[in-house]
Each structure stands twice: as C-alpha cells, then as structure tokens.
Amino acid sequence: MVEAATLREALERWFGFPSFRPSQEAIVRDVLDGRDVFALLPTGGGKSLCYQLPAVLTDGLTVVVSPLIALMKDQVDALDTAGIPATSLNSSLEYSDLRRRLDGLERGAYRLLYVAPERLTLPGFVDDLERWGIARVVVDEAHCISEWGHDFRPEYRRIAPLRDRFPDVPFCAFTATATARVRDDVVAQLGLRRPAVHVASFDRPNLTYRVMHGTRGIDELVRWLRTRPDDDAGIVYAGSRANTEKLADALSAAGIPAVAYHAGLDPALRSKRQEAFIRDDVRVVCATIAFGMGIDKSNVRFVVHYDVPRSLEGYYQETGRAGRDGLPAECAWFFAYGDVARAERFVDEKPESERPAARAQLERIVRYAYSNGCRRRELLGYFGEEYPLERCGACDNCLQPRASFDATVDAQKLLSC
Ligand code: ADP
Ligand code: MG
Which reaction does this enzyme catalyse, per its entry (predicted)? Predict the structure, then answer.
C-alpha cells in the first residue's frame, strides 16, 4: 500500500500537478497493485497519467498499445519533457533510429514502450518482450477492440493472444467511449480477469449546453460571436466541407478571424491551421468532425454546432473539446427545421446497410434538440449515468424553460417529411 502523500509527491515531482483528477488516484493504486483494470474516463480526464505514474514507480517495462502514430509521438514527447524515459516502435522508423531504440530496450533504458497493435504479431516481437521483462500491458483507446464501438480496428484483436503468452502480466484498458455493450465486449475480448472497474462521471460541470431554436444563419452566428469576449477562441462545427469554407469566409469578412478545416485540405495546410488555432493566432476554426481528435487545446471557450450533429455521442465528444481547462465554456447548437431535412438526405445517401443505424441516431439527436428537460441529465443518461439532480442550472432548458409542447410528435412529423 503506497501512502497517499507519496503518490502525491510523485505526481508533483514527475508531472508537476498539485493534485489528482477524479478517479486518477484510485486507478493508479489498482494499477500499482497489479490488478487488471478497466477505466472509462471522459476525453481530457487524464487517462495517460493513470498508467504513466505507475510506470515510473515500478520495475519493468509498461507496454502501451495505441492506435495512431501521431498519438504515440505526442505522448513520448510529453514524457521526454517530463524526464521519463519512453519510446515507441513503429513501421515508419529509419533503421538507425530503430536500432537505437531496440538497444535501449535491451538495456532496460525505458519505462514505457508505445506500440501499434500490428507489431504484436511481428515474428520475434513477443520473444523480445519476454527478454525485456514487461510489468503490464496497457490498452489505450480500448473501445477500438469492439465492433460495437464507433471506431473498430480489427488489429486490436491481436492483443488478446498476448494474454496466453504472459499469463501473469496485468492488462489495463482505457477508453473514453463505451456504452455498456462496448464495455462488456472490451472486458471479454481482452480476457480481463476480475478487473478493477472505474467509471468516472462524464459530467462536465463547466460546460453550458444550449440549443438555439430557429436561429440558424450566418448573421445570427456573427451576432452571437460578437457577444463573446474578443479573445475567446472556439470551434464551429459544420456538416460539410463547403459549409466550413463558407462560414470561415463570412466570419472573416465580418471581422472575426476564422479559418476552415476539413479532411479535403492539404495536410500541410491542415497542420498550419491547427497550429494557428492552438497558438491563438486565429480565433475560430470552422470545421468538420475531422477536427478535434487528439487536439489538446485547453482554452477552447465555445463549441458551436451549425449543422445537425450525427449522433448524441458525437455531439458529446465534440462539445467535450470546450473548456478542458475547467473554466466556463459554451456549447451552442444553432438549430432550425430545415437542417433536419438536409441531415435526412445525408442519411439517404449512405450505403443501404448503414442507413437504419444512421437514421436511429439522427432521430435520437433530433429528440434531444426538442427536449424540454435538463440537457445534462439527458446527455449523461445516454451514457448510462444518472445525474443526481433534476435540473443542472446550466443548460438552456434549466436557465430559460420554454413553454412545453409535444416534442415527440413534432420531431416525428419532421423526420417523416
Ligand atoms: P485523456 O487521455 O483522458 O483524454 P490525457 O491523459 O491526454 O487525457 O490528459 C488530458 C490533459 O490533462 C493533459 O494535458 C494532461 O497533462 C492533463 N492532466 C492529467 N492529469 C492531470 C492532473 N492531475 N492535474 C492537472 N492536469 C492533468
Ligand atoms: Mg488519451
């Protein structure tokens, strides 16, 4: 049993943080105890620290399976800065660089090793791991193992066989996205044994949620942005590449520095615009959902949805990019009737097999738009979490209750047109 004071000292010493975020300390303890762990924490909740701190406090190598080279690089760079020896192995390395890293691993020079799941089945790799002596296997973005999640990666199925090869090594799974079904699937697929399960609250108390009915239009958006403090930065999500361009032009013309961001842009231009936003050189990014994954800008003060989000889950993740510093931030969805018909057309353009699910998700998010109840309660309820209060006091419906009307009938009418 590690003393709480010792853990906090280590936290301060290695990461420079004065205190743990909710759930972090309990997870760190279970990891240190050598238990299998399943942890569900929202984006920005601080999952990395839950395995990085144990990695510096114990012997042996912590092997982290991660889905993207870019994510691995960010993490290894951050650990470098903190003075924690870490490295990654991936297929894009020059031979000399690879050699250097492998030599370091042979010498036991690293505390953490990041790998893509593909590496686990390369000939000889498991023998290497055996020689290097692994303390635990961490599966980051663990929902990728489940077909029921939104980001299934078949390569993640290569993780489970490691279990047979290293029966005594604990496995820890981390994710921000998991419905009950995905949660059970992750536990089963990884063969977790009596895991310590941690489900942090998904509540983001500093975010205010609003659905602005009938306010759709660039003029309204400009007017709304002008009510915000001048140096507030934010993201405006739009449903199409064309709309991101149109919005960025209109905002710039109105004197609000804005750029467009979508997957159709040249990668160099994309990273330039992303950098500009992170450095506060540009106030607003008008983006498709291609923007956001893995972006750690803590002072995003607002997230606007200018078109209908694809799903309630997507909406939660996108709004979740606001206010990661814990200070108040606004999530405003500009909603008008016509948007639903347009969103329906997008659904109709999908391959037939995807249509029923896409339609169900659209119906769900439209029902949310028309709901009179507490938004926070509804969002959290969607993730299976019961908000302890009837009213949060920080969403449009709690702040300015509208006259009630039969939203269900209205929404159904819209969806059948
Ligand atoms: P997640 O993987 O859960 O989305 P990260 O591990 O990337 O989150 O952490 C998000 C941000 O929170 C990072 O900038 C990280 O440095 C910061 N952070 C993590 N734990 C703490 C803490 N205890 N105190 C302050 N900041 C923290
Ligand atoms: Mg993470």
Answer: Couples ATP hydrolysis with the unwinding of duplex DNA by translocating in the 3'-5' direction
